[in-house]
Amino acid sequence: MERQLKTDLSRFNNDWYKKGGSSIKRIAWYLLNAAFFNSAFPIMSFKRFLLRLFGAKVGKGVVIKPYVNIKYPWRLSIGNHVWIGERVWIDNLGLVVMHDNSCISQGAMLLCGNHHYKKVTFDLVVGNITIEEGAWIGAHAIVCPGVKVGSHAVLTVNSVATARLEPWSIYQGNPAVKIKDRVIKG
Questions:
Q1: pTM of the model
Q2: CA 80 to chain centre
Q3: Top-tier CATH class for 21-179
Q4: Rounded to whole angstroms, how far apart are CA atoms 166 and 69?
Q5: Residue-wise pLDDT tens for the chain (186 aa)?
């Protein structure tokens, strides 16, 4: 019988990963995120101001609901008229780009990080996420590292995007598969 290797978390090392910003900047953001984003704080103009102050690109008309958690604003680009719903988690170890008129519904997660489960050292794996114009991420849906959500694509409630979502398509399930085309009527 072949000897199986086991995960050894004592060997985990992500020194290669650069979080960006000084320790003071990261601590300041952690505190401000807790006080003004991952809370019931309602004033969106102040939230947009703080994101810009910490290096995010933020367009006009952006709506950020209460209890949103953002890991690193300096790795965030938000277009015009983007909606970010309650309890969204933007775990942006990589770059997250949300283009104009995209919507991230309540409880959705944008996850730029994962682990290499086949490695003894459980290495960190990071990938960027792009949400193109008019795309909609449904409530409690998950977008995984390296995924590009095409223009006007929809990821339905509780679905998991593990690969590119084609434009003008509706995806459902875990992993999400295309179920039909998206047609918008006037």
A1: 0.96
A2: 17
A3: mainly beta
A4: 27
A5: 678 899 999 999 999 999 998 999 999 999 999 999 999 999 999 999 999 999 999 999 999 999 999 999 999 999 999 999 999 999 999 999 999 999 999 999 999 999 999 999 999 999 999 999 999 999 999 999 999 999 999 999 999 999 999 999 999 999 999 999 999 999
